Amino acid sequence: MDKTKRRFSRIALDFPATLIVDKTEVYDIHELTNLSIGGCLVPLDEDIVEGTRCTITIRLAGGLGNTPVNVTGEVVRHDKDYVAVKFTKISPPDLLHLQNLIRYNAPDPDVIEEEIRNNPGIF
């Protein structure tokens, strides 16, 4: 996707995650390739049909209380190395957790803060 069309900044994140596709296929991910408030890129060599619903659980560590972030999404594209997921639904506590995770790991937290202010939800 053209970076100029992106609504949210992407950050590199080395936290592990779990991707559950169609409530049946479970994939353990060692680390997300990138993460934004609107979606993520998952390093995964699987042929998952675009539009397929999925759930991402980001497993946190350290001072964040080890509370995972759970987000519902849909696959928007894939190739042999990755699956791109657009977030479609998140609870308010998980949204706050996701925003903080991105804010504290971003190279420029002020940019993230402005994105959060301008886009209070994920839609």
Short description:
The protein has helices at residues 92-105, 109-118; strands spanning 17-21, 25-29, 34-35, 39-43, 53-58, 69-78, 82-89. By secondary structure, the protein is an alpha+beta fold. It has a seven-stranded antiparallel sheet.
Using brief descriptors, characterize the structure shown:
123 residues, Thrombin, subunit H, seven-stranded antiparallel sheet, 2 helices, 7 strands, globular, alpha+beta
List the helices and strands and how they pair.
Layout: E1 17-21, E2 25-29, E3 34-35, E4 39-43, E5 53-58, E6 69-78, E7 82-89, H1 92-105, H2 109-118
Antiparallel strand pairs: 1-2, 1-5, 3-4, 4-7, 5-6, 6-7
Helix pairs in contact: 1-2
Can you offer a commentary on this structure?
With 123 residues, the chain is α+β, with helices and mostly antiparallel strands. The chain has one domain: predicted glycosyltransferase like domains (Thrombin, subunit H, Beta Barrel), CATH 2.40.10.220. The protein has 2 helices and 7 strands, in the order E-E-E-E-E-E-E-H-H. A 7-stranded antiparallel beta sheet has the order 2-1-5-6-7-4-3. The two termini are 18 Å apart.
